[in-house]
């Protein structure tokens, strides 16, 4: 059986931490769906379309990766698409409680669905989209936080 997994998130905008998790998942599974949460209520800085475009550029070299927008329940979406597992990056203890709860909710809603955690690359443990946005808005250098191919685009939008 082919293994299809999903990496869900806001990706507002994509960081090197996200690309690291997606790349590692793409080596382990036959196909990886990157699910961009369509969440206008959360007031994202980048539109869903912009976040998808940035992710497409940042993962252009990964042939088994597909970028999609999704809303609604992940437990339902994964069932519809034949996805067997959610793959998430786990940064530090602070991520754990929330992620553990989400994983248990999803297991209840869809017992066939597994949640797998990859430990964050130690270089990116501190990295978050919100941190990148804050630094860019204050005129800081974000070149070591976001993929080079989308750096200028991200910076232009956040300044
Ligand atoms: P954030 O807004 O906190 O950066 P997202 O909701 O976009 O995060 O995250 C999507 C997924 O990427 C989540 O599973 C999250 O744990 C993971 N992730 C985000 N940043 C990192 C990082 N620096 N290292 C590892 N995983 C990360």
Describe this structure in words.
The protein is of the alpha/beta class. It has a single domain, classed as Rossmann fold (3-Layer(aba) Sandwich). The chain contains six helices and five strands, in the order βαβαβαβαβαα. It has helices at 16-28, 48-58, 74-81, 93-109, 129-137, 148-158, and strands at 4-9, 31-37, 65-70, 85-90, 114-119. A five-stranded parallel β-sheet has the order 3-2-1-4-5, sandwiched between helices. The protein is globular. The mean pLDDT is 95. The structure holds adenosine-5'-diphosphate (ADP). The site of adenosine-5'-diphosphate (ADP) has 17 residues, from α1, β4 and α5.
Which keywords apply here?
alpha/beta, 19% strand, single chain, 159 residues, Rossmann fold, 43% helix, five-stranded parallel β-sheet
Q: Quickly give the CATH architecture.
A: 3-Layer(aba) Sandwich
Q: Strand arrangement, largest sheet? A: 3-2-1-4-5
Overall helicity: 40-55%
- Number of strand segments: 5
Name the CATH class.
Alpha Beta
Number of domains: 1
CATH topology grouping: Rossmann fold
Give the topology:
Elements: E1 4-9, H1 16-28, E2 31-37, H2 48-58, E3 65-70, H3 74-81, E4 85-90, H4 93-109, E5 114-119, H5 129-137, H6 148-158
Parallel strand pairs: 1-2, 1-4, 2-3, 4-5
Bound molecules: adenosine-5'-diphosphate.
Summarize this entry quickly.
With 159 residues, the chain is of the alpha/beta class. It is built from six helices and five strands, in the order E-H-E-H-E-H-E-H-E-H-H.
